[in-house]
Amino acid sequence: MLPRIQKHFKIKLMKKHGLLLTLCLITLSVSAQDRLFTHTYQSIVLNQGQREIEVWNTLRTGKDQFYRALDSRVEYEFGIAKNLQVAFYLNAGSTTFESYDEIGSKQIESKFNWGFSNEWKWKLSDASANKMGSALYGELGVSGDEIELEFKVILDKQIGRVLQAVNLVSELEFETEIESSVNDNGQLEQEIENELEFSFDVYYGLSYNVNTNWNLGFEAAVKNGFHDGELENSALFAGPGFSYVKGPIWINFTLMPQLAGLKNESGTGLVTTEYEKFQTRLIFSYAL
What we know:
The protein is built from 1 helix and 12 strands, in the order H-E-E-E-E-E-E-E-E-E-E-E-E.
């Protein structure tokens, strides 16, 4: 009888340890990378001394008229202290769009832009160990014609194989533009104008850990643009994505089409004056 009881408890102990080992592997596969999404951030930060190189590519297409933009970023990030991460970006962007010349003839115009960004991320609580993970995020971006200040409140929770994250994002953009007009004498006049734009967006991400290499996910965003303190445009974006990690390498990919215009100053339907109909993002990272 005693050997049977010992065998019974031994089997239960092995099952329990096996379950714990599985949960540990899942946690390790998730925490081995800084993020599982391309738009929605997580509270996790790199440990002190850890470093990563990230390469971003975002394709945005579709507005009222022909429009295509490719944004590229190269990011170097590292853990500067316990629960504190800093990153530096080199940004490059190419935009091709339909425009009109002085006599009203249609033409295709392209613009290129370069810039620099500095990001700070401070982890307040852990998504697995605490009731909820949380972090604060700030980013300063500077380019030839604009300065951007972005702030995020990051909330997330890991339960077994499922991770959920919510970001509350506010952004101030100081932009310099050349405004063209034709006076009463038919002459073209141009002047430099400085504009201040404000946006407040909400991002949501859901990821399911399939195995140690793959995570399948979904992201959604409600983007809101304000002018003179009033909501001008609002749009809903959502789509599927995945994350793949193997050793020091991970790849994230998301499709994010615009599904609905929640508020459209120019009319009904999709908000295609301010936002694109379709965007997709690919991030490649290597841990140094």
